[in-house]
Design goal:
- The protein is α+β, with helices and mostly antiparallel strands.
- The chain has six helices and ten strands; from the N terminus they run E-E-H-H-E-E-H-H-E-E-H-E-E-E-E-H.
- The strands form four sheets. Strands 2-1-5-6 form a four-stranded mixed β-sheet, covered by helices on one side. The chain has a two-stranded antiparallel sheet with strand order 3-4.
- It has two domains: 1-109, no CATH class; 116-194, no CATH class.
C-alpha cells in the first residue's frame, strides 16, 4: 500500500508492503499500549489520546524518521497509519512541532459485507438504536484539543470521507459547548437514519 505525505508542500510516497502490515500488528498494538498511558502532544499532556490524536502522534514520529533517514521506522509508522486509519490517503504532518495540526485526507473506506444486526432489521429509513447512535457519534466527533492558543474538535464528514476541523474557539469551554452541539446533531441524524 502507498501512503502519500506532504512535507513542507513537497509530496512524497512511502510504499508499505502488505506483508509488513500483517506482520507488524503486534508492534502496532504495542504502540497503542504505550499511548494508553497518555502522551505529550506539543505543550499539552493528553491523558487518553483518541484515534485521530494517536495518528497525529505517529505521524510526528514518521516525520522524525524521514528527517533522520530512518527508512525502517518510517515504513513502520506509515504502516501503523494505514492500519489504524482505514482509507487514509494523504498525511500532512505539522513541521512546526504542533502535533495537533497534522492533517489526514481519508478517502472512501472499502465497503464490508453487511452484518446483520438489530439495526439492520429495522424498516427502511430507520436509524440506529440510541446506544448505537451514541457510540457512532462518539467516533465521528473527536474530543476537544488545543491548537496554539485556541481549541477545536474535528467531525468526520461521511459524504467526503474526510475529517473537518471545527472553527477555532478561544476557550476550552466554548469549544466544548460547540462540540456538544455537533455531537447532538450527529446523534440525532444517526437516530433518524442519516
Amino acid at each position: 500500500m502507498i501512503l502519500k505525505l506532504i512535507i513542507d508542500d513537497q509530496p512524497r510516497e512511502i510504499n508499505v508492503p502488505d506483508a509488513l502490515l500483517a506482520e507488524a500488528r503486534d508492534y502496532f498494538d504495542q504502540i497503542d499500549r504505550d499511548m494508553d498511558r497518555g502522551w505529550q502532544m506539543g505543550r499539552d499532556w493528553i491523558e487518553a489520546p483518541d484515534r485521530i490524536q494517536r495518528a497525529q502522534i505517529v505521524a510526528d514520529r514518521l516525520l522524525t524518521a524521514i528527517e533522520t533517514d530512518n527508512l525502517k521506522l518510517g515504513t513502520l509508522m506509515a504502516g501503523y497509519l494505514l492500519d489504524r486509519l482505514p482509507g487514509v490517503e494523504t498525511v500532512e504532518p505539522d513541521i512546526q512541532g504542533e502535533i495537533q495540526n497534522t492533517r489526514f485526507d481519508i478517502g472512501r473506506q472499502p465497503q464490508a459485507a453487511p452484518v446483520v444486526s438489530p439495526a439492520a432489521s429495522k424498516p427502511t429509513g430507520a436509524g440506529l438504536s440510541k446506544l448505537e447512535a451514541m457510540e457512532q457519534a462518539g467516533r465521528d466527533v473527536t474530543q476537544v484539543f488545543k491548537v496554539g492558543r485556541g481549541y477545536r474538535f474535528s467531525v468526520f464528514d461521511r459524504d467526503t470521507g474526510t475529517w473537518m476541523d471545527a472553527p477555532l474557539a478561544p476557550t476550552e469551554q466554548e469549544a466544548g459547548r460547540l462540540r456538544q452541539e455537533a455531537f447532538k446533531a450527529r446523534y440525532e441524524a444517526l437516530l433518524a437514519g442519516g
